[in-house]
Amino acid sequence: MNGDHLSEQIHPGWNALVQWLSDPHCMDISIDKLPVVARSSPGAGYGLFSLRSIEPSAPLFSIPAQALLNSLTLAPHYPSTRPKLTCTQAVSLHLMLHRSVDGHSSDPLFGPYISVLPNNFDSHPFSWLWKKRHDPDSLSLDTQLANILPRRILEKLDKMTLLFEEDWKRTQDYLRNNPTLLDKKTGTRIEEDYLWGWLNVNTRCVYHRLAKTRSDGDNMTLCPILDFANHTTKPPYTTPETTRAELWDTGPSAKKKFGDNFVLLSPSSAASPAEELYLKYGAHSSATLFSEYGFVSNPDPAEQSDETLGGQMDLGSVIEHLFERRGVVGSWMKDVLIEEGYWGDWTLHSSPAPAHPSYRLITTLRLYHLVPRYTQSIPSNVDAYLQDWRDTILGKKYIISKENESLWRGTLKKICESIVNDAVEGLGRTAAIDGSEGSPEWLDSSRTFVSWLWQEEIDVSTSVIGSLDQNEEF
């Protein structure tokens, strides 16, 4: 590959970004200290590529703390408030006020960095749902796409909606008390631009110790250069270096106003020149990757690794509805499950073999069938009634009874069969989305992602049905 061709593929904002990191932030951007470049990556927009041979597990680059975009670096530039804005709210607000216009942000603090953030999140499922809710009668592509999503994706997006609305409401209150901040705003699309900022935070922020305790929700930052790295499930991949604040569990030193620098370590094996360098976003299910990041990893086994979760399904609302239909008895059983720590997080898994329900799901369905379906009142002697079920949790008994095992396994099989039927219909609706000339470039990949999600439901449910039919022990 010749140099001219490489130059054509480099991200158009790259040079301005690294110059900004050099001046005013004093980062060493020589090839020794910054041996990477952001350039075109087939099928993934842009990616992070090595400029030279890179030794394994060594510092790849160090981003100065003051160049990180987070609650600490923004605090000196905004009026204080009680309660203070969360990191998500503060960064989303700043991005809203300084969103790029024609690929350029005029923000004097982080302009060159904001300029290389995504122009939009049109391909993100949360955007589809947000646009549909703001125009429910529309026949737009966004509405069509929102209407073909599997139920488990919609459930995750509904939870995200609650978080977004909470953050947006708090930010609106803050702006009402500080109206002059809007004088900095470019454009008039207030909520839409806030959503753009919020999705940048949710898709690109990484853990970075900024607070005294590890559990603090503000231990996060946007990091220049890092967010060009695409996700992978297969080693080798880059990893953030543990900061001193995290290592000693003390939070940032009082001498470091903005916390520690962000250092990224090279992959565990040597990288060659022009090799793409990846980041692992986490051990996430396909549903989580799609709901939060807007993509799904290739389900082809050749593209997977031992660290991949495999096919997985969350049966959240399906199981909740089972108990709702039991009325008073169902409410009581729900309370028992909450008290014992088994309410929610009910999943099916295709691996490791045999395909199986999670222990939490088995325990929940055992309780569901402990009380006969015709019973409409809560048992009088609750503790005695629950003893056999509790004994299975404690390991004192393997099962409640053969009848109970048969009943819960039968219920699970019916659930899986219903999921397969719905997924087959979902695949058909997804294929019917018009991808004709004039459609956005991202449509084909988005349809593929949704199809993979529907197919995962078929594969996982069919595999669990097979395990049930073969009387596999779980």
User: What's the CATH superfamily of the largest domain, by name?
Assistant: set domain protein methyltransferase, domain 1
Largest sheet: 3 strands, antiparallel
Helical content class: 40-55%
Beta strand count: 11
Write up what this structure looks like.
The protein has 474 residues and is mostly helical. The protein has two domains: 46-293, Alpha-Beta Complex (set domain protein methyltransferase, domain 1); 312-470, no CATH class. 44% of the residues lie in helices and 7% in strands. It has 17 helices and eleven strands. The protein has helices at 3-9, 14-22, 71-74, 87-97, 111-114, 125-134, 141-147, 151-177, 190-204, 244-247, 286-293, 316-324, 327-340, 359-368, 382-394, 402-431, 443-469; strands at residues 36-40, 46-50, 59-63, 206-207, 220-221, 239-240, 262-265, 276-277, 312-314, 347-349, 356-357. The chain has a three-stranded antiparallel beta sheet. A three-stranded antiparallel beta sheet has the order 3-7-6, with no helix packed on it. Strand 1 (36-40) and strand 2 form a beta hairpin. Helix 4 crosses helix 8 (151-177), helix 4 crosses helix 9 (190-204) and helix 8 packs parallel to helix 11 (286-293). The longest helix has 30 residues, at 402-431. It is globular, with a radius of gyration of 25 Å. The termini are far apart. Residues 1-5 have low confidence and may be disordered. GO terms for molecular function: protein-lysine N-methyltransferase activity. Keywords: Methyltransferase, S-adenosyl-L-methionine, Transferase.
